[in-house]
Design brief:
Layout: E1 5-9, H1 14-25, E2 29-34, E3 53-57, E4 70-73, H2 80-83, H3 87-108, E5 111-117, H4 144-164, E6 168-173, E7 176-177, H5 188-198, E8 202-205, E9 211-213, E10 215-216, H6 217-229, E11 237-239, E12 244-246, H7 247-258, E13 264-267, H8 282-288, H9 296-312
Parallel strand pairs: 1-2, 1-4, 2-3, 4-5, 5-6, 6-11, 7-10, 8-13
Antiparallel strand pairs: 9-12
The structure holds nicotinamide-adenine-dinucleotide and uridine-5'-diphosphate.
Amino acid sequence: MTAERVLVTGGAGFLGSHLCDSLVADGADVLCLDNFYTGGKANIRHHLCQNNFEIIRHDLVEPILLEVDKIYNLACPASPVHYQNNPVKTVKTNVMGTINMLGLAKRVKARILQASTSEVYGDPSEHPQRESYWGNVNPIGPRSCYDEGKRVAETLCMDYHRQNGVDVRIIRIFNTYGPRMAVADGRVVSNFIVSALQGEPLKVYGDGSQTRSFCHVSDMVRGMRAMMETDNFTGPVNIGNPAEFTIGELAGIVLRLTGSKSRVEHLPLPKDDPVRRRPDISLAREKLGWEPRVPLEEGLKDTIAYFRSVLTV
Ligand code: NAD
Ligand code: UDP
């Protein structure tokens, strides 16, 4: 039997590289596509000599002809710092990139999983967020290129599904952390750990009372793969860890686990920063038999160990 050919767009990024690890280990024929905007070869270097792994440097905004059985569409910068750096490009990646991947899926009859986001809920007025909630998103703000881009990507998935019978899977990913986040990624977990390890102040935006729910990357990869392997269910489905923390609490936990003497400094809250966020994962439990296994403190330990190793090189 020939191995399944699996395309991972954004495969050199944080989540994509862990997904590649899992697929390569299970014997899939993995094609990793990336333009190296926020990802890097260091994340996938360990696979370069493996027969069932290939890498293509390509920008998803441009069409590409490939022959594959499954597509995980992850290409898109995920950190606000990076997706706001070139917002027009962020929209293009989410809209044109997703059209290119859906067109490919249609032509070769591949199943496609779209990495959507909890950001489709915007600054939610429903808490915790269920998949049935339509969201509260500013269409013209600094986060819109990402939030609205991802919302259009979901629309495209469902339209290709209804119009062309494309076999789509949509997952809404909630804040995920772990080893291989870039040192300069800009998201809160990596920022806090890097600052704590370097003895720099931890910069809490606003008063730190806003909440997020943090999922370890190992749980996320299991969730993605479970969704890809499920039949007769397009989603969208929330994948995240429902344990909710304030950003102030997160700062305290990171300081304690690193043993850092850094102080906490408060900076203004960025515009449209969501006040609270927590997934309702009943649907993932019911349809996928999935739930997270790694509590925040345990997951932070391997993440801190990773940053210690890269910062001392
Ligand atoms: P990341 O920035 O580490 O990875 C994104 C990857 O996509 C990078 O390797 C980047 O170089 C690549 N990329 C970006 N634009 C591209 C383009 N036009 N063509 C080809 N490659 C391109 O981010 P991540 O955390 O690994 O996120 C992966 C996916 O999951 C993204 O789609 C993101 O929106 C989604 N997501 C992540 C989180 C999270 O907390 N990590 C939460 C919600 C959604
Ligand atoms: N945040 C912070 N300090 C940082 C980075 C982020 O206080 O150095 C806050 C940010 O304002 C937000 C939360 O942490 O309220 C999560 O931010 P992140 O960029 O990680 O993800 P997102 O806002 O997209 O959920």
